[in-house]
Amino acid sequence: MSPTVITRFPQDPSIEEEEELTKQCKELLLSLPRERGWRTPYIYLFQGFWCQPTEIQAIISFQKHFQAKDSDVVVATIPKSGTTWMKALAFAIANRHRFASSKNHPLLTSNPHDLVPFFEYKVYENNQVPDLSKLPEPRFFGTHIPYPSLSNSIKNSNCKIIYISRNPFDTIVSTWHYLNKIKPESAPELTLEEAIEMFCKGSVGFGPFWNHLLGYWKESLERPNKVLFLKYEDLKADINSNVKKVATFLDCTFTVEEERGGAIEDIIKLCSFEKMKELEVNKSGKSIKNFENKNLFRKGEIGDWANYFSPEMVQKLSKVMEEKLGGSGLSFKMLS
Prior knowledge:
Blueprint lengths: L12 H4 L6 H7 L4 E3 L5 E5 L2 E3 L1 H13 L7 E4 L6 H12 L17 H4 L3 H5 L16 E4 L8 H5 L3 E6 L2 H15 L9 H10 L7 H14 L4 E5 H6 L1 H11 L6 H5 L2 H8 L2 H6 L7 E3 L2 E2 L18 H15 L11
Parallel strand pairs: 4-5, 4-6, 6-7
Antiparallel strand pairs: 1-2, 2-3, 8-9
Protein backbone atom coordinates (compact mmCIF):
# COMPACT_ATOMS: atom_id res chain seq x y z
CA MET A 1 0.00 0.00 0.00
CA SER A 2 1.46 3.36 -0.98
CA PRO A 3 2.07 5.87 1.81
CA THR A 4 -0.11 8.90 2.33
CA VAL A 5 1.84 12.03 1.44
CA ILE A 6 0.80 14.98 3.56
CA THR A 7 1.16 18.46 2.13
CA ARG A 8 4.00 20.43 3.72
CA PHE A 9 4.26 24.03 4.78
CA PRO A 10 7.47 26.06 5.18
CA GLN A 11 7.21 25.79 8.96
CA ASP A 12 6.49 22.27 10.15
CA PRO A 13 6.01 22.42 13.96
CA SER A 14 6.87 18.74 14.47
CA ILE A 15 10.27 19.38 12.89
CA GLU A 16 10.99 22.78 14.39
CA GLU A 17 10.47 21.41 17.90
CA GLU A 18 13.35 18.97 17.42
CA GLU A 19 16.15 21.16 18.76
CA GLU A 20 18.77 18.47 18.27
CA LEU A 21 18.26 18.26 14.52
CA THR A 22 20.69 19.88 12.13
CA LYS A 23 19.47 22.32 9.52
CA GLN A 24 20.22 19.77 6.81
CA CYS A 25 18.11 17.12 8.52
CA LYS A 26 15.19 19.48 8.98
CA GLU A 27 15.33 20.35 5.29
CA LEU A 28 15.43 16.66 4.39
CA LEU A 29 12.34 15.96 6.50
CA LEU A 30 10.36 18.57 4.58
CA SER A 31 10.83 16.48 1.44
CA LEU A 32 9.78 13.14 2.94
CA PRO A 33 6.31 11.56 3.12
CA ARG A 34 4.98 11.38 6.64
CA GLU A 35 2.30 9.52 8.58
CA ARG A 36 0.92 9.72 12.09
CA GLY A 37 3.41 8.21 14.50
CA TRP A 38 2.79 5.66 17.22
CA ARG A 39 4.36 7.77 19.97
CA THR A 40 5.27 10.98 18.16
CA PRO A 41 3.16 13.28 15.97
CA TYR A 42 4.72 11.94 12.78
CA ILE A 43 7.04 9.33 11.39
CA TYR A 44 8.79 9.79 8.06
CA LEU A 45 9.45 7.50 5.10
CA PHE A 46 13.25 7.41 4.80
CA GLN A 47 15.08 5.00 2.49
CA GLY A 48 11.92 2.91 2.20
CA PHE A 49 11.16 2.55 5.92
CA TRP A 50 9.40 4.63 8.56
CA CYS A 51 11.22 6.32 11.42
CA GLN A 52 11.40 9.44 13.55
CA PRO A 53 13.43 12.60 12.86
CA THR A 54 16.17 12.01 15.44
CA GLU A 55 16.52 8.43 14.21
CA ILE A 56 16.99 9.62 10.62
CA GLN A 57 19.77 12.00 11.64
CA ALA A 58 21.55 9.26 13.62
CA ILE A 59 21.18 6.74 10.79
CA ILE A 60 22.73 9.13 8.29
CA SER A 61 25.70 9.62 10.62
CA PHE A 62 25.99 5.85 11.15
CA GLN A 63 25.91 5.12 7.42
CA LYS A 64 28.58 7.71 6.75
CA HIS A 65 31.00 6.97 9.57
CA PHE A 66 30.72 3.44 10.93
CA GLN A 67 33.61 1.15 10.02
CA ALA A 68 32.88 -2.48 10.80
CA LYS A 69 35.47 -4.98 11.99
CA ASP A 70 35.27 -8.64 11.03
CA SER A 71 34.93 -9.52 14.72
CA ASP A 72 31.90 -7.25 15.25
CA VAL A 73 28.52 -8.67 16.27
CA VAL A 74 25.31 -6.82 15.42
CA VAL A 75 21.99 -7.80 17.04
CA ALA A 76 19.21 -6.67 14.69
CA THR A 77 15.46 -6.64 15.34
CA ILE A 78 12.28 -4.81 14.63
CA PRO A 79 11.08 -3.21 17.90
CA LYS A 80 9.47 -5.45 20.55
CA SER A 81 10.68 -8.73 19.06
CA GLY A 82 12.91 -9.95 21.88
CA THR A 83 15.67 -7.38 21.47
CA THR A 84 16.69 -7.08 25.13
CA TRP A 85 16.78 -10.85 25.64
CA MET A 86 18.79 -11.49 22.47
CA LYS A 87 21.32 -8.79 23.33
CA ALA A 88 21.86 -10.33 26.76
CA LEU A 89 22.22 -13.87 25.39
CA ALA A 90 24.63 -12.93 22.59
CA PHE A 91 26.81 -10.84 24.91
CA ALA A 92 26.92 -13.55 27.57
CA ILE A 93 27.68 -16.33 25.09
CA ALA A 94 30.54 -14.53 23.35
CA ASN A 95 32.07 -13.18 26.58
CA ARG A 96 31.64 -16.26 28.77
CA HIS A 97 35.40 -16.77 29.23
CA ARG A 98 36.04 -13.09 29.92
CA PHE A 99 33.37 -13.01 32.63
CA ALA A 100 33.52 -16.55 33.91
CA SER A 101 31.99 -15.82 37.29
CA SER A 102 28.28 -15.08 37.32
CA LYS A 103 28.71 -13.17 40.59
CA ASN A 104 30.35 -10.13 38.95
CA HIS A 105 28.91 -10.40 35.46
CA PRO A 106 28.22 -7.04 33.73
CA LEU A 107 24.64 -8.11 33.02
CA LEU A 108 23.98 -7.97 36.77
CA THR A 109 24.80 -4.28 36.95
CA SER A 110 24.23 -3.03 33.38
CA ASN A 111 21.16 -3.12 31.18
CA PRO A 112 21.72 -5.14 27.96
CA HIS A 113 21.22 -1.94 25.93
CA ASP A 114 24.25 -0.41 27.66
CA LEU A 115 26.42 -3.42 26.82
CA VAL A 116 25.08 -3.75 23.28
CA PRO A 117 24.30 -0.12 22.32
CA PHE A 118 21.99 0.85 19.49
CA PHE A 119 23.62 2.60 16.54
CA GLU A 120 20.61 4.89 16.14
CA TYR A 121 19.82 5.60 19.82
CA LYS A 122 23.19 5.73 21.50
CA VAL A 123 26.31 5.37 19.34
CA TYR A 124 25.37 8.03 16.78
CA GLU A 125 22.67 9.96 18.62
CA ASN A 126 22.70 13.75 18.35
CA ASN A 127 24.82 13.55 15.20
CA GLN A 128 27.88 12.50 17.22
CA VAL A 129 30.78 10.58 15.66
CA PRO A 130 32.53 8.58 18.40
CA ASP A 131 35.89 6.86 18.15
CA LEU A 132 35.02 3.15 18.32
CA SER A 133 38.40 1.83 17.24
CA LYS A 134 39.67 1.15 20.76
CA LEU A 135 36.64 -0.75 22.07
CA PRO A 136 37.49 -4.29 23.23
CA GLU A 137 36.72 -6.99 20.69
CA PRO A 138 34.36 -8.48 19.89
CA ARG A 139 32.45 -5.21 19.71
CA PHE A 140 28.69 -5.58 20.15
CA PHE A 141 26.07 -3.28 18.65
CA GLY A 142 22.31 -3.31 18.24
CA THR A 143 20.00 -1.87 15.63
CA HIS A 144 16.44 -1.70 14.33
CA ILE A 145 17.66 -0.49 10.93
CA PRO A 146 16.49 -2.65 7.97
CA TYR A 147 19.20 -4.66 6.21
CA PRO A 148 19.36 -2.56 3.00
CA SER A 149 20.13 0.56 5.07
CA LEU A 150 22.96 -0.90 7.14
CA SER A 151 26.33 0.70 6.48
CA ASN A 152 28.24 -0.72 3.53
CA SER A 153 31.09 -1.62 5.86
CA ILE A 154 28.80 -4.03 7.72
CA LYS A 155 27.47 -5.63 4.56
CA ASN A 156 30.93 -5.93 3.00
CA SER A 157 32.78 -7.20 6.07
CA ASN A 158 32.77 -10.59 7.76
CA CYS A 159 31.07 -9.30 10.89
CA LYS A 160 28.15 -11.34 12.22
CA ILE A 161 24.49 -10.32 12.36
CA ILE A 162 22.03 -12.05 14.69
CA TYR A 163 18.43 -11.29 13.79
CA ILE A 164 15.56 -12.23 16.07
CA SER A 165 11.99 -12.09 14.81
CA ARG A 166 8.64 -12.52 16.52
CA ASN A 167 5.17 -13.31 15.26
CA PRO A 168 3.36 -10.11 14.23
CA PHE A 169 0.39 -10.62 16.56
CA ASP A 170 2.48 -10.60 19.74
CA THR A 171 4.72 -7.88 18.29
CA ILE A 172 1.73 -5.57 17.85
CA VAL A 173 0.36 -6.19 21.36
CA SER A 174 3.78 -5.71 22.96
CA THR A 175 4.40 -2.51 21.00
CA TRP A 176 0.92 -1.18 21.75
CA HIS A 177 1.34 -1.70 25.51
CA TYR A 178 4.86 -0.28 25.48
CA LEU A 179 4.14 2.86 23.54
CA ASN A 180 1.06 3.72 25.59
CA LYS A 181 3.30 3.49 28.68
CA ILE A 182 5.93 5.87 27.35
CA LYS A 183 3.75 8.33 25.41
CA PRO A 184 3.62 11.97 26.53
CA GLU A 185 0.88 12.57 29.10
CA SER A 186 -0.76 15.07 26.78
CA ALA A 187 -1.08 12.54 23.96
CA PRO A 188 -4.18 10.34 23.69
CA GLU A 189 -3.83 6.61 24.10
CA LEU A 190 -3.47 4.60 20.92
CA THR A 191 -6.25 2.02 20.57
CA LEU A 192 -5.46 -1.52 19.49
CA GLU A 193 -7.65 -1.00 16.43
CA GLU A 194 -5.56 2.01 15.45
CA ALA A 195 -2.33 0.12 16.08
CA ILE A 196 -3.41 -2.79 13.87
CA GLU A 197 -4.51 -0.44 11.10
CA MET A 198 -1.17 1.38 11.11
CA PHE A 199 0.70 -1.92 11.26
CA CYS A 200 -1.22 -3.29 8.27
CA LYS A 201 -0.43 -0.12 6.31
CA GLY A 202 3.22 -0.63 7.12
CA SER A 203 3.61 2.72 8.85
CA VAL A 204 5.29 1.55 12.05
CA GLY A 205 8.76 2.29 13.35
CA PHE A 206 11.36 0.74 11.01
CA GLY A 207 8.57 -0.96 9.06
CA PRO A 208 6.84 -2.14 7.05
CA PHE A 209 7.20 -5.14 9.35
CA TRP A 210 7.28 -7.63 6.46
CA ASN A 211 10.01 -5.75 4.57
CA HIS A 212 12.14 -5.72 7.70
CA LEU A 213 11.72 -9.46 8.17
CA LEU A 214 12.30 -10.35 4.53
CA GLY A 215 15.44 -8.24 4.20
CA TYR A 216 17.25 -10.21 6.90
CA TRP A 217 15.52 -13.50 6.04
CA LYS A 218 16.71 -13.47 2.43
CA GLU A 219 20.23 -12.50 3.46
CA SER A 220 20.31 -15.35 5.99
CA LEU A 221 19.45 -17.81 3.22
CA GLU A 222 22.07 -16.40 0.86
CA ARG A 223 24.80 -15.87 3.48
CA PRO A 224 24.11 -18.14 6.46
CA ASN A 225 27.61 -17.51 7.85
CA LYS A 226 26.84 -13.78 7.87
CA VAL A 227 23.25 -13.60 9.15
CA LEU A 228 21.64 -15.92 11.70
CA PHE A 229 17.84 -15.63 11.58
CA LEU A 230 16.09 -16.71 14.79
CA LYS A 231 12.51 -16.74 15.98
CA TYR A 232 11.44 -15.66 19.45
CA GLU A 233 9.01 -18.58 19.61
CA ASP A 234 11.78 -21.09 18.88
CA LEU A 235 13.97 -19.62 21.61
CA LYS A 236 11.14 -19.97 24.12
CA ALA A 237 10.45 -23.55 23.03
CA ASP A 238 14.07 -24.76 23.08
CA ILE A 239 16.43 -22.17 24.51
CA ASN A 240 19.25 -24.70 25.08
CA SER A 241 19.60 -25.67 21.41
CA ASN A 242 19.37 -22.07 20.27
CA VAL A 243 22.05 -20.90 22.69
CA LYS A 244 24.34 -23.55 21.21
CA LYS A 245 23.35 -22.41 17.71
CA VAL A 246 24.29 -18.81 18.51
CA ALA A 247 27.62 -19.90 19.99
CA THR A 248 28.50 -21.92 16.89
CA PHE A 249 27.48 -19.02 14.65
CA LEU A 250 29.78 -16.71 16.62
CA ASP A 251 32.66 -19.19 16.26
CA CYS A 252 32.76 -19.93 19.98
CA THR A 253 31.12 -23.34 20.17
CA PHE A 254 30.60 -24.79 23.64
CA THR A 255 33.04 -27.56 24.49
CA VAL A 256 31.87 -30.89 25.87
CA GLU A 257 33.38 -29.89 29.20
CA GLU A 258 31.43 -26.64 29.23
CA GLU A 259 28.19 -28.41 28.47
CA ARG A 260 28.80 -30.98 31.19
CA GLY A 261 29.71 -28.20 33.61
CA GLY A 262 26.41 -26.41 33.08
CA ALA A 263 27.78 -23.37 31.20
CA ILE A 264 24.75 -23.23 28.90
CA GLU A 265 22.28 -23.43 31.76
CA ASP A 266 24.19 -20.70 33.64
CA ILE A 267 23.86 -18.34 30.67
CA ILE A 268 20.17 -19.15 30.22
CA LYS A 269 19.51 -18.41 33.90
CA LEU A 270 21.57 -15.21 33.85
CA CYS A 271 19.67 -13.89 30.83
CA SER A 272 16.21 -15.13 31.75
CA PHE A 273 13.28 -12.73 31.69
CA GLU A 274 12.63 -13.34 35.39
CA LYS A 275 16.26 -12.72 36.37
CA MET A 276 16.66 -9.54 34.32
CA LYS A 277 13.33 -8.11 35.45
CA GLU A 278 14.25 -8.40 39.15
CA LEU A 279 17.64 -6.67 38.83
CA GLU A 280 17.81 -3.19 40.30
CA VAL A 281 19.49 -1.79 37.16
CA ASN A 282 16.46 -2.84 35.12
CA LYS A 283 13.97 -1.32 37.57
CA SER A 284 15.32 2.22 37.28
CA GLY A 285 17.21 4.55 34.98
CA LYS A 286 17.27 4.88 31.21
CA SER A 287 19.60 2.90 28.95
CA ILE A 288 17.92 4.18 25.80
CA LYS A 289 17.14 7.87 25.52
CA ASN A 290 13.70 8.72 26.97
CA PHE A 291 12.88 5.04 27.61
CA GLU A 292 12.82 3.86 31.22
CA ASN A 293 14.37 0.44 31.77
CA LYS A 294 11.41 -0.76 33.83
CA ASN A 295 9.18 -0.57 30.76
CA LEU A 296 11.36 -2.98 28.79
CA PHE A 297 10.03 -5.99 30.72
CA ARG A 298 6.30 -6.76 30.54
CA LYS A 299 5.40 -10.45 30.06
CA GLY A 300 7.62 -11.95 27.38
CA GLU A 301 4.94 -14.54 26.65
CA ILE A 302 3.88 -16.27 23.42
CA GLY A 303 0.24 -16.02 22.43
CA ASP A 304 -0.71 -13.09 24.68
CA TRP A 305 -2.30 -11.50 21.61
CA ALA A 306 -5.22 -13.95 21.93
CA ASN A 307 -6.34 -12.00 25.01
CA TYR A 308 -6.79 -8.85 22.92
CA PHE A 309 -7.56 -9.67 19.29
CA SER A 310 -11.11 -10.03 18.02
CA PRO A 311 -11.80 -12.56 15.22
CA GLU A 312 -12.01 -9.64 12.79
CA MET A 313 -8.58 -8.38 13.86
CA VAL A 314 -7.10 -11.85 13.44
CA GLN A 315 -8.55 -12.14 9.96
CA LYS A 316 -7.33 -8.69 8.93
CA LEU A 317 -3.74 -9.17 10.05
CA SER A 318 -3.55 -12.79 8.86
CA LYS A 319 -4.58 -11.74 5.37
CA VAL A 320 -1.91 -9.04 5.20
CA MET A 321 0.86 -11.31 6.43
CA GLU A 322 -0.14 -14.09 4.02
CA GLU A 323 0.03 -11.61 1.15
CA LYS A 324 3.36 -10.16 2.20
CA LEU A 325 5.22 -13.29 3.32
CA GLY A 326 3.64 -15.80 0.93
CA GLY A 327 6.22 -17.75 -1.06
CA SER A 328 9.14 -16.58 1.09
CA GLY A 329 9.33 -19.74 3.18
CA LEU A 330 8.96 -17.63 6.33
CA SER A 331 6.03 -18.26 8.67
CA PHE A 332 5.23 -18.02 12.37
CA LYS A 333 3.52 -20.12 15.01
CA MET A 334 0.80 -17.98 16.50
CA LEU A 335 0.23 -19.73 19.83
CA SER A 336 2.42 -21.52 22.35
